[in-house]
C-alpha cells in the first residue's frame, strides 16, 4: 500500500514554521527569488486588503460547535460528527458589507478547521490548516471574523482530512441589498452522499481506495455487476463500473448507501409549504464527496439564474448537473399539489428529493420517482455570465498550465505529476503577483472527471463563460479560465472529490511580494 499523504500529516508544520522556511530560503544565495518572499497569511497586507472591503457596520454572529452526536439515518442509528448536533450545520444568513463573526468550539478528539467555500475573504480566515492557519486543537476555541464582499449561495465545511464526509458543513447565504431577482419564497437545499456509520467510515473508504485497482490483464470473471450503479468486485467501498456519458465516463469511486436532501433520505422527504403560482428560488448546494447530482423537477422547467453565487444569463432547462462543491440557483413556479425537486446521483443508484406542497393531494411514493431526468441538461460551466459580472477584457499577465494526473491503478492523484504534500506546500506552486490577470489552462490527463475548486477568488470561464469557483473538468478535456489576482495570500486549489484531494490532487496559488 502506498503511504497516504493526508492533510493530517502536517500538524507539526505550523503557519509560523512555513514563514520561517520561506525566510530561510530568502537568505540562501542559491534559493530562487520566487521562493523568497511570499505574502503569508500573517502579512500586514492581508489586514490592509480586508479593511478595503465594503462595510455597513453590521455584525452577524453564529456559534459553531464541532462535536460527536447521535442521529438516525434511513431508520438506522448513526454516531457521527457535526456542527451544533445536526446533519446540516446552522444556516448562516447575512448580507454584503456585514462582518461575519463565527466562534468555533472544537469538542472533537482531533483538530479541525472551517473553510468558507467560494468566498473572496481575508487569507488568514480561509481555514486551511497548515497553510493559512494552524488546526483548531481538540478542546479549544477559535474565531473567524471577516467581511462579506459578494452576495450569493455559498457554504462552509471542515477542511481537515475527511471530516467533511461526516456532517461538518452548512449553508451560507449572503443576500444582495440591491437584489434584482423577483421571487416569493426561497428554499436552501444541501445534497450529500452519505455512508458514515451506515456502511463504514470515511477513513475506511480512503484506506481501501488507496490500495488502488490495477485492471491491466485482470480477470473480470466472478465480478458481481450491480444494477445500474457499478460492479461489486468484492470491495466493501470501492465502486467500479459506475458510468455517466454526461461526465465523460467513470461517474465515481465510492459505493453510497444513502443520498440526503437537507439531511433527509428519500423515505423522509422534506416538505416546503407553498401556494400555486408562487415563484421559489432554489439555492442548491452539492456537499457530496464523490457524487455529482442531476437535479430537476419532473415534467417542469427550471430557470437557472446563478452559479457559484454569481448571476448568469437566464437559461430554461429540464435538469442541471452539479459537481461536488458547486452551487446553482434556479427559479420554479409552483403548481397545485405535490411537486418533487429530484436529485439523481449521476451514474449511480438511488435518489434524494424534497417536496413542494400546496396543501392538496397526497405525496408521491418514494419508490415511484423517475429514475431519469432527460431533455435539456446542462451544468454551470456551460452557462454565460450576466453582463454585470463580466471581467473587463485584458490580456493575461501570466499563464499557468495545470495538468490533472493520476489513475485508479494506485489511486494516486496529483497536479502536474505531483502528489501534494502539506509539509512542503509550495513545491510546484503556481506563483503570481498582485494585480495580474492570470489565465489557467486545466488539462485533464486522467480517465476521471474532477470538480476543480480555487480558494479565495472567482474565475471567469473562457468566451464570457460563467463566474465560478468550482468547475467540472471531464476526462481528456481542457478548461480555460481567468481571474484577477486581487486577494493576496496563499490559496489552495484542489479537486473537490474528497477522496481525490486526500490522495494528492491539490496545489497552491502563491502570491509573491
Number of β-strand runs: 36
**Shape verdict:** globular
Major β-sheet, in short?
6 strands, mixed
Query: What's the alpha carbon Rg, rounded to whole Å?
Result: 22 Å
Helix/strand class: mainly beta
Low-confidence stretches: 1-35, 215-228
Order of strands across the widest beta sheet?
A: 15-10-17-22-19-20
Strand content: 35-45%
Mean pLDDT comes to 90
Could you estimate the helical fraction of the residues in percent? under 10%
Number of helices: 4
Cα end-to-end separation: 41 Å
Concise structural overview:
The chain is mainly β.
For this entry, give a set of tags:
4 helices; 7% helix; 513 residues; six-stranded mixed beta sheet; disordered N terminus; mainly beta
Explain the overall architecture:
The chain is mainly β and 513 residues long. It is 7% helix and 38% strand. The protein is built from 4 helices and 36 strands. It has a 6-stranded mixed sheet with strand order 15-10-17-22-19-20, with no helix packed on it. It has a 6-stranded mixed sheet with strand order 16-24-23-18-21-25, with no helix packed on it. A 6-stranded mixed sheet has the order 27-26-29-34-31-32, with no helix packed on it. A hairpin with a 2-residue loop joins strand 19 (302-307) and strand 20 (310-317). The protein is globular, with a radius of gyration of 22 Å. The two termini are 41 Å apart. Mean pLDDT is 90; it is low at 1-35 and 215-228.
Amino acid at each position: 500500500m502506498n503511504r497516504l499523504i493526508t492533510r493530517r500529516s502536517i500538524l507539526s508544520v505550523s503557519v509560523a514554521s512555513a514563514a520561517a522556511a520561506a525566510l530561510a530560503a530568502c537568505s540562501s544565495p542559491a534559493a530562487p527569488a520566487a521562493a523568497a518572499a511570499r505574502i503569508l497569511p500573517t502579512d500586514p497586507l492581508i489586514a490592509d486588503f480586508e479593511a478595503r472591503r465594503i462595510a455597513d457596520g453590521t455584525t452577524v454572529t453564529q456559534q459553531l460547535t464541532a462535536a460527536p452526536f447521535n442521529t438516525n439515518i434511513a431508520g438506522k442509528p448513526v454516531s457521527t460528527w457535526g456542527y451544533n448536533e445536526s446533519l446540516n450545520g446552522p444556516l448562516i444568513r447575512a448580507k454584503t458589507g456585514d462582518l461575519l463573526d463565527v466562534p468555533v468550539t472544537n469538542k472533537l478528539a482531533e483538530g479541525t478547521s472551517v473553510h468558507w467555500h467560494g468566498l473572496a475573504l481575508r487569507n488568514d480566515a480561509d481555514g486551511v490548516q497548515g497553510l493559512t492557519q494552524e488546526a483548531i486543537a481538540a478542546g479549544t476555541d477559535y474565531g473567524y471574523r471577516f467581511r462579506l464582499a459578494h452576495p450569493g449561495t455559498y457554504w462552509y465545511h471542515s477542511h481537515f482530512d475527511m471530516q467533511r464526509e461526516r456532517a461538518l458543513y452548512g449553508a451560507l447565504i449572503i443576500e444582495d441589498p440591491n437584489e434584482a431577482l423577483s421571487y416569493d419564497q426561497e428554499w436552501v437545499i444541501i445534497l450529500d452522499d452519505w455512508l458514515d456509520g451506515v456502511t463504514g467510515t470515511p477513513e475506511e473508504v480512503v484506506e481501501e481506495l488507496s490500495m488502488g485497482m490495477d485492471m491491466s490483464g485482470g480477470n473480470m470473471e466472478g465480478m458481481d455487476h450491480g444494477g445500474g450503479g457499478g460492479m461489486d468486485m468484492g470491495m466493501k467501498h470501492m465502486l467500479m463500473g459506475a458510468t455517466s456519458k454526461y461526465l465523460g465516463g467513470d461517474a465515481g469511486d465510492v459505493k453510497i448507501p444513502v443520498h440526503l436532501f437537507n439531511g433527509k433520505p428519500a423515505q423522509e422527504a422534506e416538505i416546503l409549504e407553498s401556494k400555486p403560482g408562487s415563484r421559489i428560488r432554489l439555492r442548491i448546494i452539492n456537499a457530496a464527496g464523490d457524487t455529482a447530482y442531476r437535479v430537476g423537477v419532473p415534467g417542469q422547467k427550471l430557470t437557472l439564474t446563478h452559479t457559484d453565487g454569481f448571476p448568469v444569463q437566464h437559461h430554461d432547462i429540464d435538469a442541471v448537473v452539479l459537481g461536488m462543491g458547486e452551487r446553482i440557483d434556479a427559479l420554479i413556479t409552483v403548481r397545485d399539489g405535490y411537486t418533487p425537486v429530484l436529485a439523481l446521483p449521476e451514474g449511480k443508484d438511488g435518489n434524494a428529493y424534497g417536496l413542494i406542497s400546496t396543501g392538496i393531494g397526497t405525496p408521491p411514493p418514494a419508490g415511484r420517482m423517475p429514475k431519469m431526468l432527460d431533455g435539456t441538461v446542462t451544468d454551470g460551466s456551460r452557462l454565460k455570465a450576466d453582463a454585470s459580472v463580466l471581467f473587463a477584457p485584458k490580456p493575461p499577465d501570466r499563464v499557468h498550465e495545470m495538468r490533472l494526473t493520476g489513475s485508479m491503478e494506485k489511486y494516486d492523484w496529483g497536479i502536474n505529476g505531483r502528489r501534494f504534500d502539506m509539509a512542503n506546500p509550495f513545491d510546484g506552486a503556481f506563483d503570481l503577483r498582485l494585480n495580474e490577470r492570470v489565465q489557467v489552462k486545466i488539462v485533464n490527463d486522467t480517465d476521471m472527471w474532477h470538480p476543480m475548486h480555487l480558494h479565495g477568488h472567482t474565475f471567469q470561464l473562457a468566451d464570457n463563460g460563467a463566474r465560478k469557483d468550482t468547475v467540472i473538468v471531464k476526462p481528456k478535456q481542457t478548461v480555460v479560465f481567468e481571474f484577477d489576482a486581487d486577494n493576496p495570500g496563499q490559496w489552495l486549489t484542489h479537486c473537490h472529490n474528497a477522496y481525490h484531494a486526500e490522495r494528492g490532487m491539490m496545489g497552491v496559488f502563491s502570491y509573491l511580494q
